[in-house]
Amino acid sequence: MSAITDPPKGGFQLSQLIYDTRYRSMTIQIVALVLFLVGVGWLLNNAAQNLAALGKPLGFGFLGEAAGYDINQKLIEYNNQMSHGRAALVGVMNTLLVAVLGCALATVLGVTIGVLRLSNNWIVARIMTFYIEALRNVPVLLWIVLLMAIFIESFPQPKDFRGDDAVATLKIFESVAFTNRGFYIPKPDMFAGSMFVVFVFLASIVGMFFFRSWSRKRQEATGEILPNFWISLGILIIPALLVYFVLGRPIGLEYPELKGFNFKGGIYMRNSLIALTLALALYTAAFIAENVRAGIMAISKGQSEAAFALGLRPSRTMNLVILPQALRVIIPPLISQYLNLTKNSSLAIAVGYMDVTGTLGGITLNQTGREMECLLILMAIYLAISLTISTVMNWYNESVKLRER
Amino acid sequence: MKNSTFVGTLAAATFAAGFAAAGTLDDVKAKGFVQCGVSTGLVGFAAADANGNWDGFDVSVCRAVAAAVLGDAQAVKFTPTTGKTRFTALASGEVDVLARNTTWTFSRDVDLKFTFVGVNYYDGQGFMVPKELGVASAKDLDGATVCIQTGTTTELNLADFFRTNNISYEPVPIETNAEAQQQYLAGACDVYTTDASGLAATRATFESPDAHTLLPEIISKEPLGPLVRHGDDQWADIVRWTMNALIAAEELGVTSANIKESAMEAGNNPEINRLLGTEGNLGEQLGLSADWAKNAIAAGGNYGEIFSRNIGESTPIGLARGLNAQWTDGGLIYTPPFR
Q1: How far apart are CA B64 and CA A352, in angstroms?
Q2: Do A34 and B182 touch (CB under 8 A)?
């Protein structure tokens, strides 16, 4: 009779939580979670107590009070009798404006520079390398301030445009005023019938897409390639132009004119907006260029050799073979760059651009003394903007991802 | 079980995290210096020289407080603050006293929870324009571009002024006086507006001050003075009465020149005796030494001396006493009695 030892019985012992591998990881996680929650709780509690001790309990009622200050650039209706909340909204719009303009410009510049850096032309490649290294190795705040200083110091004052022997004149067919307060460009003036022109133009855009898909099908069927670009351009412009002249030019231009202290009329682009957008775009473009270069270089050389062997020209090889594959590598870091640009736009106060940090996190915070509330809202706003950008870009990334079969 | 542990520990943390607020006076004595918030640089009021020594009208208040509390006018740590950062710096305890041409207003006193200890300069908001612009009145400024320091009362006054007069303007918000100066001189704005004293101080640093003029309108009351946090009345008393001591010294004819002998022994004037600690125990009541006021006055002279040395008519800034003369001379500078 062989002695069989009984399997260990007995109840659950506390030491098993640490020594038994079945439970150990769970124990550690729970302990860590509790410590983390206690830490967060302590911070919140501490903040609440300190605020109470200062006699400033948390409250968001101030958002409904009259702001009392003016904002120079407003995309929505605003005056100083409206609420702090409205002022914050004006700031959010200004932030979004810089973010959208900046991201678009940075993408165009970045892709161009990134491709050119791989150029076989030694000079072009070196110039692009120099650009990238110069731009991305200097803090963006300095670029913003530098551009602003250049705008302020080097462009003429509005009063220089005055008189018969004016020092400065309007540029580009006397339509654009470059001043040290910003640029004034002509504004389209809509007369009766102008809506019809706009409608035709919109219809042309739809038509262009139809042509594109028809042309692709035709190419797949016959193998012939139409001069797509020129035909698209024609579809886009010619009908609208025809309607424009037939209706007797219903869209005019309102030119900027010097009246009083400043130019009136036209679209006023403040130099703070231009300096900020340009500096952010130039800076971020340097990073995007590197992303693009990395994406292109990640594509095996065999791909371009195969494309050449098929007789594709270099530009078609780039557009049809390399870039579509490179996009998969480019998009994820590109999302980070968009987020960086958007968050860097909070440096706007350096040039007096009234973004949300300037209105809500600046003047409102200062006039109401609600630091905690303002900063919490501000963080929530940036978080929301960033998550939205991420979501949209991830969705785009999904659509260009390699389809594995 | 997990939940209750969490709640239990949270409750324990609640008790542990008490709000520790020691008296500011004890803190200052322990540190050995007074933390003073000043402007980032406004000649005459607070500016650092090439060696990093701060000097000016507002700086003198800080030095007097340091002399009264610690007996050493140099025992001050200056923190330059912008219009935006100043209140946070004071509320968070980064500075003990804020002497930075700050306007005493209802909401700052009541809502922001600060104690203004008095007024050391009665000011009003003015406009500066280049003479060649040919503007004679602020009401002619329709459509003008106005440089303005953001986060100040002037920002709100400006909005009110243009609204009541029904004229338009384009505000250019700016962080510091230096940036405003750069933009104004480059012509990026037509007008610079801030407290009239600040405008005079700024104009004094221009290459050609005569090319610029201050418009006649003063659109607001700007009583400027030092302030401290709510909740520490002893510290507020110390700063208030240090400032009052400087004012009383001028009224009583005590100057930096004669203070040594006046403080040697009790003289004929009982108020001077009480002020300088040769009679009574005012210093003890404040929690300071008996010669606190003597030290404060010796640090930079009395109110009149500080005024004329930093911003008076003999300086490039050239401000007349005006409202800031002693009440005996028809001004508003007046201190409650030392008794």
Answers
A1: 36
A2: no
**Which tens digit of pLDDT belongs to each residue from A247-287?**
877 777 888 888 778 888 788 889 899 999 999 999 999 99
Tokens of A29: 């996680």
Q: Which two tokens stand for residue A253?
A: 């231009």
B210 and B284 together in one domain: no
Q: How many angstroms separate the CA atoms of A38 and B215, rounded?
A: 60
- Give chain A positions within 8 Å (CB) of B171: 70-72
Does B5 fall in a domain? no
Partner residue opposite A54 with nearest CB, options B91, B133, B144: B91
Q: Does B57 touch chain A (CB under 8 A)?
A: no
- Per-position b or e across A296-321, b if 16+ CB within 10 A of its CB: beebeeeebeebeeeebeeeebbeeb
Interface test with B, best of A69, A183, A276 (most B CBs within 10 A): A69
Model pTM score: 0.79
Listed as ranges, residues in chain B with pLDDT below 70 are: 1-22
In A180-293, at which residue ranges do the beta strands (DSSP E only) sit? 182-185, 187-190, 251-254, 257-259, 262-264, 267-270
Domains of chain A: 84-153+280-400 (1.10.3720.10)
Neighbour-count burial of B201, counting CB atoms closer than 10 A to its CB (0-12 exposed, 13-18 middle, 19+ buried): buried
